């Protein structure tokens, strides 16, 4: 009888709550107003002939590499960062290997690594979700072949010091070190091109967040050219669709749009954190486009009341050490003002005095 591999049968299933997302979407860390108007104009120009052709990734990879200041051979465009994670695991992991993941974090690291038959070792974040560099290094063994680090981290918004990331890559040369910079634009620090000194280092970027292209599914895996070539071997030549490839150069060219949006998000992030501080609600300072806060037993009423006011926020209670926590995405100045009005009304409705710190 046909059966899936044991490592696949035992995988947890990742079910993002995508159904019924009506209202202001502050639950999935998306751009709240969407992509640049120039991208929409480019979409309208796409011809039937372009859609009929198989997509050609190489020329667009050269454009993206030039924008990032790296060589084309140091970059592979992927179907979102999800595929970059999957390809990295498939290239460097096999049964009996070990992968280290700091938790709480993005679920796909563990899922993609475990699917290969590798053993996933979860390392708890430190107090206040601080990056546990020393503890992580203490878990390294000769079987360690992958360490995945989101920086900034999701769902906490916390970051690892650049020196810590470089130390890890230096001390574990037998492992692929993935630094996932999906939220780079909201933070500003990068490990890009550090693989010139540390060839086991990879950096992932996405165009789903600040660029507002989540529906087109396009990301990038960057790293040492020799290792990127190995990852490319198992990638489909047509993994990124032609519409995404057609629009990506236009999105990159409109940096004014990205900069203006990022400024609004950062200001909104500060406003939301100040609101939490004034109300005594525990939150964790974030360098991403969201803030994680603890509402304790009031978590479910808060989510439901916010939804009734047309605003979606994300329950993160199932994440490691996040019981009672809610993650709230920031967007434009207008959307932040709407969020804060609804939040104040909701807290009054559910009894703000009963909100408990984690």
Total strands: 13
CATH structural class of the largest domain: Alpha Beta
Question: How many domains, in number, for the residues?
Answer: 2
Which structural class should the secondary elements be placed in?
Answer: alpha/beta
Share of helical residues: 25-40%
Q: How is the main sheet built?
A: 7 strands, mixed
The shape is: globular
In spatial order, strands of the major sheet run 2-8-7-6-5-3-4
How far apart the termini lie comes to 49 Å
What CATH architecture of the largest domain would you give?
Answer: 3-Layer(aba) Sandwich
Our estimate of the beta-strand percent is: 15-25%
Using the coordinates shown, work out and report the CATH topology of the largest domain: Aspartate Aminotransferase, domain 2
Report what the structure shows.
The chain is 39% helix and 16% strand. It is α/β, with parallel strands linked by helices. It folds into two domains: 6-30 and 256-354, Aspartate Aminotransferase, domain 1 (Alpha-Beta Complex), CATH 3.90.1150; 40-253, Aspartate Aminotransferase, domain 2 (3-Layer(aba) Sandwich). A seven-stranded mixed β-sheet has the order 2-8-7-6-5-3-4, with helices on both faces. The chain has a four-stranded antiparallel β-sheet with strand order 9-10-13-12, with helices on one face. The chain has a two-stranded parallel sheet with strand order 1-11. Strand 9 (283-284) and strand 10 (290-294) form a beta hairpin. Helix 5 (80-92) runs parallel beside helix 6 and helix 11 runs parallel beside helix 13 (333-350).
């Amino acid at each position: 009888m046909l059966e899936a591999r044991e490592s696949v049968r035992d995988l947890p299933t990742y079910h993002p709550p995508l159904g019924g997302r009506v209202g202001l979407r502050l639950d999935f860390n998306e751009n709240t107003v969407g992509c640049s108007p120039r991208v929409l104009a480019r979409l309208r120009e796409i011809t039937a002939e372009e859609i009929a052709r198989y997509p050609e990734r190489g020329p667009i990879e050269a454009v993206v590499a030039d924008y990032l200041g790296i060589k084309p051979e140091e970059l592979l465009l992927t179907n979102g960062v999800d595929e970059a994670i999957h390809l990295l695991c498939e290239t460097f992991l096999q049964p009996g290997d070990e992968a280290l993941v700091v938790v709480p974090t993005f679920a796909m690291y563990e899922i993609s690594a475990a699917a290969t038959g590798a053993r996933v070792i979860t390392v708890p974040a430190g107090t206040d979700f601080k990056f546990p560099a020393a503890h992580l290094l203490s878990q390294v063994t000769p079987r360690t072949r992958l360490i995945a680090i989101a920086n900034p981290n999701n769902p906490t918004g916390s970051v690892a010091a650049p020196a810590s990331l470089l130390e890890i890559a230096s001390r574990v040369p037998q492992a692929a070190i993935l630094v996932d910079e999906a939220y780079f634009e909201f933070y500003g620090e990068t490990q890009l091109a550090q693989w010139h000194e540390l060839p086991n280092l990879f950096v992932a970027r996405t165009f789903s967040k600040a660029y507002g292209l989540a529906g087109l599914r396009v990301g990038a895996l960057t790293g040492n050219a020799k290792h990127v070539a190995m990852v490319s071997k198992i990638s489909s030549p047509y993994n990124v669709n032609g519409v995404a490839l057609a629009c990506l150069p236009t999105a990159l060219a409109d940096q004014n749009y990205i900069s203006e949006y990022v400024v609004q998000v950062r200001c909104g992030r500060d406003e939301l954190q100040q609101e939490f501080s004034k109300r005594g609600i525990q939150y964790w300072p974030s360098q991403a486009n969201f803030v994680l806060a603890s509402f304790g037993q009031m978590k479910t009423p808060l989510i439901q009341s916010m939804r009734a006011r047309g605003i979606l926020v994300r329950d993160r209670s199932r994440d490691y050490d996040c019981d009672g926590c809610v993650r709230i995405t920031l967007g434009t100045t207008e959307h932040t003002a709407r969020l804060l009005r609804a939040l104040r009304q909701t807290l009054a409705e559910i009894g703000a005095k009963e909100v408990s710190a984690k």
